[in-house]
């Protein structure tokens, strides 16, 4: 396909910018339809992956009555004659006679026939060696099924696996979990004007996205290595097509930076046309970052891959990341559509006419408020470095102080939970 023909095809595919919320929903649906394969993995290899099946218990939790204190498992009224000792890991014989007791350790199995557990610090010994004391009225042991009953669903499919989930799975008796593997990502940096080292100057700017985006993608659960980051890719159509074809051979998702418009050196749309890509989203009515895109291709193996075209301006690229890439990756991993928390605007935020405005904010989580930050031009990163996310100002509105608005959070490390 010639450059002119490919460019014409790309322009024909273009349409009015998609509504931001709808674009986000379409990206998620596309990912979910192409959800990644499921495999059983040992517990120690599942951190950061996603449950493909509900987590259920293999036994009651606890599986047997378990002493919650060090003390005496007694039967009947005291004082009690000591007839044995029970440590964690053993199976004690039953207490069959009133007035008898066994010494018991925290975590040990309570013997059948016990009517109470007396704390060691609340007990005494009589001169003839009997145990005396008054057991508390509340039981001092955990009963079978107190935490969960056998077969009970504890977590649904789609739950991200973190250390707490791994520990819970182990306590349920699981050695492996059925999980979806992590998405494999690649990054192509477009732009002959970019420097990869040293300070900017002489008409050239430093590439800020090549070093930063892999870390953002890892926080969304992707696997990406330094070898998966390529660029700057030469500003020619053949170079773009070749770089995309190579990256798509090994990645589920290829992110690109720059080239999402239709200028003389913007070759992404013609390259996608040459590769036979289908647009999921082609431009979004959001500011900053509207010339973003998400395209879908089917490889020779029949597996679907995606290309996310991020604008070249750094903040705009992150807007595209949170708008299209985050929901896409949630779908690929079989996770729920990311829900947006809300916060109260502490200061006014302007609207952007018919476009959704994603405005960088710092959150005061104790107060539940969002504070706009400075230095928020689409080419700036200073404001982003001090922000927690983007306040969503709907089209045709402005953000008035006191208004409750959705907030798109910036991604956390795998396993982290927002405070």
UniProtKB/TrEMBL annotation:
<dbReference type="InterPro" id="IPR036135">
    <property type="entry name" value="MoeA_linker/N_sf"/>
</dbReference>
<keyword id="KW-0808">Transferase</keyword>
<comment type="similarity">
    <text>Belongs to the MoeA family.</text>
</comment>
<dbReference type="InterPro" id="IPR001453">
    <property type="entry name" value="MoaB/Mog_dom"/>
</dbReference>
<dbReference type="Pfam" id="PF03453">
    <property type="entry name" value="MoeA_N"/>
</dbReference>
<dbReference type="InterPro" id="IPR036688">
    <property type="entry name" value="MoeA_C_domain_IV_sf"/>
</dbReference>
<comment type="pathway">
    <text>Cofactor biosynthesis; molybdopterin biosynthesis.</text>
</comment>
<keyword id="KW-0479">Metal-binding</keyword>
<keyword id="KW-0460">Magnesium</keyword>
<dbReference type="InterPro" id="IPR005111">
    <property type="entry name" value="MoeA_C_domain_IV"/>
</dbReference>
<dbReference type="Pfam" id="PF00994">
    <property type="entry name" value="MoCF_biosynth"/>
</dbReference>
<keyword id="KW-0501">Molybdenum cofactor biosynthesis</keyword>
<protein>
    <recommendedName>
        <fullName>Molybdopterin molybdenumtransferase</fullName>
        <ecNumber>2.10.1.1</ecNumber>
    </recommendedName>
</protein>
<keyword id="KW-0500">Molybdenum</keyword>
<dbReference type="Pfam" id="PF03454">
    <property type="entry name" value="MoeA_C"/>
</dbReference>
<comment type="function">
    <text>Catalyzes the insertion of molybdate into adenylated molybdopterin with the concomitant release of AMP.</text>
</comment>
<dbReference type="InterPro" id="IPR005110">
    <property type="entry name" value="MoeA_linker/N"/>
</dbReference>
<dbReference type="InterPro" id="IPR038987">
    <property type="entry name" value="MoeA-like"/>
</dbReference>
<feature type="domain" description="MoaB/Mog">
    <location>
        <begin position="186"/>
        <end position="331"/>
    </location>
</feature>
<dbReference type="InterPro" id="IPR036425">
    <property type="entry name" value="MoaB/Mog-like_dom_sf"/>
</dbReference>
């Amino acid at each position: 396909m010639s450059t002119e023909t490919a460019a014409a095809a790309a322009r024909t595919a273009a349409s009015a910018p998609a509504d931001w919320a709808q674009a986000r929903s379409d990206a998620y649906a596309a990912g979910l339809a192409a959800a990644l394969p499921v495999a059983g993995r040992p517990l120690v290899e599942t951190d950061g992956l996603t449950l493909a099946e509900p987590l259920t218990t293999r036994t009651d939790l606890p599986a047997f009555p378990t002493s919650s204190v060090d003390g005496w498992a007694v039967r009947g009224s005291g004082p009690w004659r000591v007839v044995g000792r029970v440590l964690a890991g053993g199976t004690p014989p039953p207490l069959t006679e009133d007035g008898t007791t066994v010494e018991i350790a925290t975590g040990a199995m309570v013997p059948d026939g016990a009517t109470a557990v007396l704390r060691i610090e609340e007990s005494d010994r009589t001169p003839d060696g009997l145990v005396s004391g008054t057991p508390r009225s509340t039981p001092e042991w955990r009963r079978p099924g107190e935490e969960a009953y056998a077969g009970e669903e504890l977590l649904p499919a789609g739950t991200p696996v973190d250390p707490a989930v791994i520990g819970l799975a182990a306590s349920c008796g699981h050695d492996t979990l059925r999980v979806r593997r992590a998405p494999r990502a690649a990054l192509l940096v477009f732009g002959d004007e970019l420097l990869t080292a040293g300070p900017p100057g002489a008409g050239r700017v430093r590439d800020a996205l090549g070093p930063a985006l892999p870390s953002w993608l890892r926080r969304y659960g992707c696997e990406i290595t330094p070898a998966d980051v390529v660029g700057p890719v030469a500003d020619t159509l053949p170079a773009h097509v070749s770089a995309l074809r190579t990256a798509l051979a090994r990645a589920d998702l290829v992110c690109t930076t720059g080239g999402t418009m239709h200028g003389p050196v913007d070759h992404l749309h013609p390259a996608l046309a040459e590769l036979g890509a289908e647009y999921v989203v082609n431009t979004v009515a959001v500011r900053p970052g509207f010339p973003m895109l998400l395209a879908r291709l089917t490889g020779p193996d029949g597996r679907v891959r995606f290309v996310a075209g991020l604008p070249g301006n750094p903040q705009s690229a992150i807007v595209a990341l949170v708008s299209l890439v985050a929901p896409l990756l949630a779908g690929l991993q079989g996770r729920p559509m990311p829900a947006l928390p809300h916060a109260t605007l502490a200061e006014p935020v302007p609207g952007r006419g018919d476009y959704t405005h994603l405005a960088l904010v710092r959150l005061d989580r104790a107060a539940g408020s969002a504070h706009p930050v400075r230095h928020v031009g689409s080419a700036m990163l200073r404001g982003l470095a001090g922000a927690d996310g983007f306040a969503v100002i709907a089209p045709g509105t402005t953000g008035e102080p006191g208004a409750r608005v959705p907030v798109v959070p910036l991604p956390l490390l795998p396993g982290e939970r927002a405070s």
